[in-house]
Every structure is written in structure tokens, then in C-alpha cells.
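[job 4471] stage=fold_predict status=RUNNING
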Amino acid sequence: MRLMQYGDEFTILLERTELMSTRASGSEEALATMTYARLGQHDGQEWLIGGYGMGYTLRAALAVLAPDASVTVAEIVPEIIEWAHGPMHGLTAGCLDDPRVTLVNDDVALLIDSAREGYDAILLDVDNGPDGLTRLDNDDLYYRNGLQAAMAALRHGGILAVWSAEPDEAFAKRLRDTGFDVDEVIVPEIGKDRGVTHVIWFAQKP
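[job 4471] inference complete, writing C-alpha cells
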């Protein structure tokens, strides 16, 4: 995994595959803001974000969540956090120092597996879609056992939100088969990638 800088733009690559870029952030922000809109305001919300990335989802979450909320960020790649504190510190804008944030350098799947009705929201943006692109082990997140674990980790009415570069009918079906109420949303990007669209599944626990 490499961080590339072109002027004031940053791109993170896995070999030659672009995982994320500062050229586009709209759908990453929508992952948080649209989840919050579906949950509504209530005290003491607890969120789990899988993948820090460039921090767009975390910053969007902190902008809408109440002061008594808590957000756990699971980022398994140490370089991502090193870059956030280093060359991308201006973009990070202090979000990792917010008292509501707990940063865990570990696999988000472990946090999901260990929770029982512990989260109001689980937000996953750890691959380019519901398959293990960055780590083959991530496949487990998107299939039966992983989805059942997410269901168990959510409180009633809680939401599993999953970002993807493209639609995936088979994954949407697996969400429904697990028992989630599923809303698939096409989200347009903004900025320099205007015209590009991505997909977010909002899977709500009944």
C-alpha cells in the first residue's frame, strides 16, 4: 500500500489499484450523514467505523453526533494512521484527537464478533466493495457468518452501512437473507470526480 501526493491531492494505492483519493469524498461523508439521518437523534449513540481511510467518514460522523456519542475507529493498516498524523495532518484536522473517538489498530471483524447489541451503527469502508480486496480475510465480513455477527453486534434498530464502488445484487440479497431491512442508495460524488456514483447499503436490524 502506497501514499501518493500530487500537489495538494493525495491518493492511496494498493499496488496499482486506487483505494481512495482526496478527489472524491461525497459518498464517504454520506456513509455517516445518511446513517445518522436514518437513526435519528438520541443520547449516547455508539458507532463503529471500519477503516479510517482519509477520515472523511469519521469527520462527517463527528460533525453530526452529539457530545455524548462515542465512535470506535478500527484501522488495521498502521501506515494509514501514520499518514494521517504525518503528510495528511492538515486533512485530518484533529479528528483523531476528538474525545469521542477511540482508535483501535486491529481488524474491525474482531470488534464486531466481540460485541452483543453494543453498537447503534457499524459503518464499513474497508474495501472497494463487498469482497476482500485489501485483505482476503475481509471476505468474511460480507458473507453469512460476518453478516450474522454484525446483526448480533447491533442494537435493535441499529444500522450496518456498507460502502461500495459498484452495485452487487448478490450482496444485497445476502443482507436481506440475514434478516436486515435493506435500502440501497446510489450516491453521486462531488468535486473533481463529479459524475461518478457509488453505492451504500443501509441494512437496519428490525
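[job 4471] summary: Residues 24-204 form a domain with the Rossmann fold fold (CATH 3.40.50.150).
[job 4471] exit 0
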